[in-house]
Amino acid sequence: MKSMKRGEMPGYERLRSEVVDRKLCTFCGACVSACLLRHLEWADEPLRREKKAACEECSLCYDACYVPKLQEEEGLLEEEVLGRKRRMEEEPLGIFSRILAAKSKDERILENAQDGGVVSTILKHLFEQKSIDGAIVAGMREGFWEPFPRVAKNFDDVIASARTKFGISPNLMLVRDAVLEEYLDSICIVGLPCHTRALRHMQHTKFELAPAISLTIGLFCRENYEYLPLRNYVEGVLGEGSIAEVRKFSVTEDAMLVFSDKTLSIPITEVKKWVPRHCLLCSDYTNELADISVGCDGSPDGFSTVIVRTERGKSVFAAIEAKGLVETKPADIAAIREIAERKRRKAVQTKKIYDLRSAGLSAEEIATRLGIELETVLHRLEKY
Ligand SMILES: Cc1cc2nc3c(=O)[nH]c(=O)nc-3n(C[C@H](O)[C@H](O)[C@H](O)COP(=O)(O)OP(=O)(O)OC[C@H]3O[C@@H](n4cnc5c(N)ncnc54)[C@H](O)[C@@H]3O)c2cc1C
Ligand code: SF4
Ligand code: SF4
Ligand code: SF4
């Protein structure tokens, strides 16, 4: 265990002051897994880390957090994972070998999946090949669509955790238990771009449990939404407990669609109020450091968009195609690129708004200085 120099702030205090108190935490869960002494656990309502015992003089949780190193590691992690620097023309999608649309041919997957079921198809294939012994995914707490991390160990678990749950799932908190309690040594992580970045940082810093991770499937992500206001809205319209009857949530440019006995359309202006602060500052849309990225933008309804990136990703996806597990067609790369650029611009703009606010400017002054709508500034400042 890495020891601290005399007089240095213990790891947890440093994590708190540099990341948590500055509202930069993305709730990836890595710090919890890093505390091998189990002093750190996850607690709910509100979602937070909770320290169960006094710390030893160690810095494991701080070292596991990617946030303080975000700028320093920009570009470096990509080079490490993908073997070279990104070319200008690869902006803003990241390094890739293929982009395509794909749809599972497995009926059970199609009935249960969010889009084309590519994530579940890859997991099913990896379990059948015995190339993984577990996958860290986001399950659903008590059927109420609240995401929470779980370890899938077979195809039934994969099906039970399919579909998109909006809300924060600190998936990496389970790396510790998956390795040390369940003795898994070849794990696939399914996660959002923030999870993948955190995981790549853990691999880069040689976190001792990281060699157990054998593949990352990264979801696209424009933004996430807080679970509780979403649930309150749905139940306010459809009745208490009604969220358990929902079959699927999906988000378009104008609304969040809630598919239940009837389809509820929540205006996007309402939904935007539930975007957590850290998502307003996030610029990775296509999960640029994953082995394989999967989304739906850029593909026809019922298909998933797949970006194959690493050598490992290439061989897994090639095996799936060779076995005839998916139907494929071209994806609309220009559409994906446009959304990725928009997310980048938004992150830069939010950072400028927050910097100007810190410098003491009013919302009106910020809007004038940046030449943007006052409404936009006020929306971002709600989370300042
Ligand atoms: C918060 C969020 C935002 C997204 N935003 C976009 C977007 O802007 N554009 C886009 O094209 N796609 C987006 N996606 C991805 C999209 O919703 C689908 O997950 C993707 O198309 C894969 O579909 P599939 O049918 O292959 O997945 P499935 O086979 O249904 O598998 C879905 C996988 O996602 C995991 N998962 C579900 N919820 C979460 C969660 N909250 N955190 C971590 N993992 C989770 C499940 O465990 C499961 O393994 C988003 C996903 C999430 C969770
Ligand atoms: S004991 Fe755990 S919580 Fe405390 S500094 Fe070490 S890793 Fe962090
Ligand atoms: S490791 Fe992840 S969950 Fe922990 S403080 Fe950093 S960002 Fe937050
Ligand atoms: S927008 Fe970024 S920080 Fe927010 S959930 Fe998506 S990847 Fe994570």
Kindly list the characteristics that best describe this protein:
alpha+beta; Aspartate Aminotransferase, domain 2; single chain; eight-stranded mixed β-sheet; Alpha-Beta Plaits; binds flavin-adenine dinucleotide; about 375 residues; Nuclear Transport Factor 2, Chain: A; three-stranded antiparallel β-sheet; globular; binds iron/sulfur cluster
Care to describe what's here?
The chain has helices at residues 11-20, 30-34, 60-64, 70-73, 76-82, 107-112, 118-128, 155-160, 174-180, 193-204, 227-238, 268-271, 277-280, 311-322, 333-358, 363-370, 374-381; strands at 40-43, 48-51, 98-104, 134-141, 146-152, 187-191, 213-219, 248-251, 255-259, 263-267, 292-295, 304-308, 326-329. By secondary structure, it is α+β, with helices and mostly antiparallel strands. The protein has four domains: 11-71, Alpha-Beta Plaits (2-Layer Sandwich); 87-227 and 268-338, Aspartate Aminotransferase, domain 2; 228-267, Nuclear Transport Factor 2, Chain: A, CATH 3.10.450; 349-381. The longest helix has 26 residues, at 333-358. Residues 113-120, 137-138, 147, 161-167, 169, 171, 190-192, 219-222, 224, 294-297, 304 line the site of flavin-adenine dinucleotide (FAD).
